Amino acid sequence: MAEEKKTKGKILVVDDSEDIRMLLALKLRKAEYEVVLASDGMQALEKVDEHHDLKLIILDVMMPVMNGVQVMKFLLDKIEKKIAASGGDGNGNGNGNGNGGEKKEGEENADDEGPSPNIALKICFCTAKTDPKQINLAIQAGAHDYITKPIDESILLQKIDRLMGQDNAQMFAVMPCDLEITIAEFAKEKPSKMIELSEVHSKLESSFFIPDGTEITLDSHKLNSLFKVPVNMKGSVIFSEKLGPDLHAIEVSFQGLTEDDRTEIRSITTTKRELKDAEDDEEDEQEGSAGSE
């Protein structure tokens, strides 16, 4: 009997478009993933109950019966209940039933609602490239990442490998910076400094405090000149720490950026070792000196 080929993990693809389902299934199977398919939200929930080893769901936002956000919220609620019932911490560390004892064989919690999803299950939304509002909604609702239609195969596989925890996955490039930035929501404050940039986050140093969860928009003349168009990077503060009387470390998670925006950022973070405001002036001086020799 031939040995069954080992895959890199099981993924559920949920989309009401058969063409999209077939395309994603083809690309993912070619990349050695096992794929399960569903055509709407209700069918997706049935598949989750059938396949307890699912690691990732690629979930269309706009679907009949139940939309993607409704499906995700339902699943996240079940996962939270499962963690609470096991007395765990979300990482699979629990004590059985939340009361310090182990469940007996055949015993169920009083509030069980049928089979529960894998607590490590991740959700990646699939939405129209031209609809950043839906991307924002998906991320704020709890999605781990998103892909856009039309689907770019290289971006798709990069994101999926990362979400599935593949060791050979291409991680987001992180670039040190020394860029002056303004924050639109705090226009009257002194400019801040961007010290780190990737396509999913940025780290700042600021003279003023910004509470966690605050949505802000970053603007940099340097980045605008590199991209040839204004780039307003919207995000949410996920960490803010006071380092001194007038110095705060702030980390921002970008939200609602289009794939084009992220591609532009990626084009810089993967080609430059560092980015400074004075970099262009220094390069011009070096070129001028070389030309006069």
What does this structure look like?
This protein has 293 residues and is of the alpha/beta class. The chain is built from eight helices and twelve strands. The chain folds into two domains: 10-98 and 113-163, Rossmann fold, CATH 3.40.50; 175-277, predicted glycosyltransferase like domains (Thrombin, subunit H), CATH 2.40.10.220. It has a six-stranded antiparallel beta barrel with strand order 6-7-8-11-10-9. Strands 2-1-3-4-5 form a five-stranded parallel β-sheet, with helices on both faces. Mean pLDDT is 79; it is low at 95-112 and 281-288.
Examine the secondary-structure arrangement and name the CATH architecture of the largest domain. 3-Layer(aba) Sandwich
Name of the level-1 CATH class of the largest domain: Alpha Beta
Please state the CA-atom Rg, rounded to the nearest Å: 23 Å
CATH topology of the largest domain: Rossmann fold
Overall tally of domains = 2
Count of distinct strands: 12
The backbone outline, from C-alpha atoms, is globular
Percent in strands: 25-35%
Low-confidence stretches: 95-112, 281-288
What's the average pLDDT? 79
- Helical residue percent? 25-40%
Main sheet strand line-up? 6-7-8-11-10-9
Superfamily (CATH H level) name of the largest domain: Response regulator
Measure the end-to-end span: 75 Å
**Element string (H = helix, E = strand):** EHEHEHEHEHEEEEHEEHEH
Number of helices: 8
Tell me about the largest β-sheet: 6 strands, antiparallel, barrel
Helix-strand makeup class: alpha/beta
